[in-house]
Amino acid sequence: MQVNLEFERPEEGPTSGPVTVGWFLTKDKGAILYDPPERLSIRQTSKTHAKSASRCPAVIQMESRYFVVKCPFDLHIGFGRDDKGKAHLINRAGVASAIRSSKISEVMVMVNEAEWRFPDRPTIQLMLPYCFISDETVYLTQLGTFAHYRADPLPGTIFGGRFPVNLWPRPLMWAFEWHDTSKDLILRRGEPLFYCQFEANGPDRPIQLVEAERTEALETYMDKISGAVNYVNQTFSLFKAAESVRPAKLLTPKHRD
User: Fold this and answer.
1) I want to staple 179 with a disulfide (CB 3.0 to 4.6 A). Which of 141, 154, 156, 194 is the partner?
2) Higher pLDDT among residues 36 and 16, named by residue
3) DSSP secondary structure string, 168-218?
């Protein structure tokens, strides 16, 4: 008996074809600092040999499903404690810093020490205005830049998360767990900061990423869910409530002249 291992799905209908995911910035202030997310692509690789990894369908398929968000700032940060033992960040670049020391706290914060996952590993958050939305069920997974080589490795690890962007369009942040506080944290503008992977109801459906309009309906919906994390421990428990007040359409692609 011959077994057909290919899974069939309709060629037409609401769950066929590419999945459209919109991205937008939650604020216009300093918008030129934030590059559009772009599809992961390892450029300038050799494709002359038929068996080159650059021509491998599995590699191409994997890369096509990740999108890169680049770092918008140059930062050179150290960790320290004051004379009372309180943890704080140190601007190692000093007067040479691209960001004024008084402004660093607006983009980078240290999580309250009581909320660290490990007592010897400070948690740092880089606040970002990137947000994603879809009108289909789409889960976003935020993860580290495993395909990017750094000559000076980060002194810790990044941890992301996974949530449905169709129900929970919220600004992303870059969260860093500082394992070796004797080494500085150095971030460079333009380098990959993290990757986004999108999952829809069908692992073979490609992702079409478009810039989205911040419509009144989208802004109103985001106001309804904003800040919930400050009042509820398990935010995922609010997904049903969010779905009940969500308009059918929130994604409007931006049209440029």
Assistant:
1) 156
2) 36
3) -----EEEEEES-TTS-EEE-TTSEEEEEEEE-SSTT--EEEEEB---HHH
